[in-house]
Design brief:
Layout: H1 11-22, H2 41-53, H3 56-61, E1 70-78, H4 88-94, E2 95-102, H5 110-113, H6 115-129
Parallel strand pairs: 1-2
Helix pairs in contact: 1-2
């Protein structure tokens, strides 16, 4: 049984996140590079800008009724030693999940703990978006 809970995030922390995202320096796009040099910056900017523009969303996500819909494609990596485990049927109620991977090892810091698995999964997610 899933028990409801509330996370109180101080407004100062939300304001700090909004400010940091607003000050993010993005690399210039390389002409005609497309995916030749990794993920195009526009693919990363979109969700970051979405989050920055709606930092109040963090407050809303912890309110009764749960998170607001998230329009961009969403990939989920479930690692057995993470802080929490994702439950797909619950996640699919709110999000359009286009990529879901359950790993047999790793934890919250997957990029450091299982870098090979992590980068392969990220590449697969973005390859499927092409």
């Amino acid at each position: 049984m899933i028990k409801p809970f509330r996370i109180d995030i101080p407004q100062a922390d939300l304001d700090d996140l909004t400010d940091r995202l607003a000050r993010t320096r993005w690399p210039d796009e390389l002409p005609d590079a497309q995916w030749d040099y990794g993920i195009p910056p526009a693919r990363v900017k979109e969700p970051a800008e979405h989050r920055r523009a709606s930092s109040a969303r963090l407050t809303r996500e912890s309110a009764p009724g749960g998170p607001l819909p998230y329009p961009p494609p969403l990939g989920v990596a479930v690692l057995p030693h993470d802080i929490t485990l994702a439950v797909r049927p619950l996640a699919e109620r709110t999000y359009t999940i286009t990529h879901w991977t359950e790993f047999d090892r790793g934890g919250h810091f997957a990029a450091m703990e299982v870098p090979g698995l992590f980068i392969d999964d990220v590449r697969t997610f973005f390859r499927d978006l092409r």
